Amino acid sequence: MAPRFSLVIPAYNEAMLLPRLLDSVDDAKGRYVGADSIEVLVVDNCSTDSTAEIAAARGCRLVREGKRVIAAARNCGSREALGTVLAFTDADAMIHPETFNAIDRTLATGKYVAGATGVRLERMSPGIAAAYMIMVPMVWVTGMDTGVVFCRREDFMTVGGYNEKRIFA
After folding, report:
1. Tens digit of pLDDT for each residue in 11-52?
2. Phi, psi (5° rounding) for residue 84?
3. Which of 5, 32, 43, 51 could form a disulfide with 77 if both were Cys (CB 3.0 to 4.6 A apart)?
4. Is pTM, for the whole model, over 0.85?
5. Would you list the DSSP string of 72-112?
6. DSSP assignments along 138-159, one per residue
7. How far apart are CA 142 and CA 163, in angstroms?
């Protein structure tokens, strides 16, 4: 039986931060009613550090993508994913313990085909505040997503996935 969720994590030289993310994913999986119906795919995007080894040791499905564009890594992971719901997050992030439950509740309403959980800053400094003030209007104007981005697999495939011509976002 296919898992409910496929969490796709593109990663390039993320050996330092990936374990922290995977700890938060384990916590969220533990709080989800169907914890065994969540697969985690780490898409190694040409890392030269121990990112791939860490992912494999933590029980993630390891996928490799040679095109150094984050959209290509996300698309690669989505093609390998088995879940009916695709979720994407960055390797340097952490997810909330209720992430999978919240996504399930959101999709169950029938009002949404996709969404993003948003992010919360871990710390603040003048530089981070300045960057945040610059980024927030860009997010509003462009509709850029942040946090764990999710949608049904069939909808993702229908729209053709992420645009691989974009260097970021």
Report:
1. 999 999 999 999 999 999 999 987 679 999 999 999 999 999
2. -85, -20
3. 43
4. yes
5. HHHHHHHHH---SEEEE--TT----TTHHHHHHHHHHTSS-
6. HHHHHT---SSEEEEHHHHHHH
7. 14
